[in-house]
Design goal:
alpha+beta; Outer membrane efflux proteins (OEP); seven-stranded antiparallel beta sheet; two-stranded parallel sheet; 11 helices; about 65% helix; about 15% strand
Length: about 450
């Protein structure tokens, strides 16, 4: 085997081993906990949030220090000389716009010379205070942290919702397999009884044939249901983002206790208080308002207080304090007026239109949230009504099956009555499983639409 082939053969094994092993008996809490720790989409959102935090730390730094040294060889016809220089600088930028810099070369040899340079700038009109570059950079970074935090929350909510949905659908599929197995058992008993009666001459052969055909049909439905159960497990593994190829035993059952459904008015009010999308929209508007203020500020003339000192030492080696007497100091006011303001005016208009667009989008988002909450609420009510109907039908279906069996035993009915009653009961039991599952998930979707933390709702 070549090296390339060996790598290709071992790569899938390494990928599988990199995934965390799931327990043999998997609860909903285990599934959600694993997904929150390993799902790639959630990890991406977490990385973006951490990057935003790091950007905030960088933006909050007001001072920076650099230190270094350099050596050079100066060659000319007939001579050469090695020069050395040690240098460093300190820069400072405050949130109010103040900028200062110190450049110092304390030691030099050869053609190099030590030097000192100090500069200072304080904006007095444009670019000061909350409109300074430093303040805007920090405000933007903090806003991005809040946005990324809400986006991480949304990713977590989406992960929990998908895992819970996949988990309970897998549980439902498992329980429907059991229902179908019971249907096969009943159909086989009816077919066996019909065959014995036909052999004894108490019933026509067509009755036995009909019963056997129904057995084959029910068995086929069982195989289909088993395949759906396997597919549901695979969908759950994908939703978790780990344990590919594993088939753990699901511990939790189909939900029986359905959480209380709030009124539509209460759900809407909660959503308008909690939805993180509105916080993100507010942050975008606040950030655009800052950009608009900057664009407006750029239309004004600038007036800065400036000061500068520079000095170079005449001799080699370490500098002394006498270098301060050798330098030049300049201080004054710097006034600048933009003569061609066409580009600045256009930037101001762009920022203004963008702000209006963001405010319009927020209003539209309010309507979208109200529609989403209303749709989730109607789905809960619909599933609740369906569950009540199927539950009422269950007793009737059970009684019909008992009656059909009694009638067949008393020779006043046929096996067709039993098989039809059994099919109706199987369908009703399957509908109840689906209704219970979908009602619980509909409530989860409603809670998510209301902006409530699904982890707390599920007791995680």
């Amino acid at each position: 085997m070549t090296f390339v082939a060996m790598v290709c053969a071992t790569a899938p094994i390494s990928a599988v081993q990199a995934q965390p092993a799931l327990p043999e008996k998997l609860t909903l809490a285990d599934a959600i906990s694993t997904a929150l720790g390993t799902h790639p989409r959630l990890k991406e959102a977490q990385a973006e949030y951490l990057s935003a935090l790091s950007s905030t730390k960088v933006a909050s730094i007001q001072t920076s220090v650099e230190f270094g040294a350099e050596a050079s060889l100066d060659r000319s016809p007939g001579e050469h000389e090695i020069s050395n220089l040690v240098f460093g600088n300190l820069t400072y930028e405050s949130l109010s716009g103040t900028q200062a810099r110190l450049d110092l070369s304390p030691f030099a040899l050869g053609t190099k010379r030590g030097s000192v340079g100090v500069s200072f700038r304080q904006p007095l009109i444009k670019g000061r205070g909350a409109l300074s570059d430093k303040y805007l950079s920090l405000a933007s970074a903090r806003s991005d942290v809040r946005v990324r935090d809400k986006q991480l929350y949304l990713s977590r909510q989406d992960t929990i919702l998908r895992v819970a949905g996949a988990y309970f659908r897998a549980v439902r599929a498992r329980e429907q397999v059991k229902v179908q197995e019971k249907a096969v058992e009943i159909a086989e008993k009816v077919a066996d009884a019909a065959r014995r009666k036909a052999d004894a001459g108490y019933a026509a052969g067509i009755e036995a044939t009909r019963a056997e055909l129904r057995v084959a049909d029910v068995r086929n439905q069982l195989q289909i249901q088993r395949q759906e159960a396997k597919g549901a497990i695979e969908a759950l593994m994908l939703a978790i983002g780990a344990g590919v190829g594993e088939t753990p035993e699901l511990v939790d059952s189909v939900p029986e206790d359905i959480p209380e459904i709030p009124s539509l008015e209460e759900a809407l009010q909660t959503a308008l208080r909690n939805r993180p999308e509105l916080v993100i929209a507010d942050e975008q508007i606040a950030n655009q308002e800052r950009l608009l203020a900057v664009a407006k500020d750029q239309l004004r003339p600038s007036l800065d207080a400036v000061a500068r000192f520079s000095s170079s030492y005449p001799d080699e080696g370490l500098i002394s304090r006498s270098i301060l007497d050798l330098g030049a100091f300049v201080a004054g006011l710097q006034y600048r007026v933009p003569l061609d303001r066409r580009a600045v005016i256009e930037e101001h208009e762009i920022a203004k239109r963008r702000l209006e667009t963001l405010k319009t989008l927020r209003e539209y988002q309010l309507e979208s949230i109200a529609e989403e909450v209303g749709r989730a609420y109607r789905e809960c009510q619909s599933q609740k009504t369906s569950l009540a109907i199927y539950t009422n039908n269950l007793r009737t279906a059970q009684e019909n099956l008992v009656l059909a069996n009694r009638m067949m035993e008393e020779a006043s009915g046929t096996n067709r009555d039993v098989l039809d009653a059994q099919e109706a009961l199987t369908r009703t039991e399957g509908n109840i499983l689906s209704a219970k599952t979908e009602l619980f998930l509909a409530v989860l979707r409603l809670k998510s639409a209301m902006g409530e933390d699904l982890q707390k709702h599920l007791g995680q």
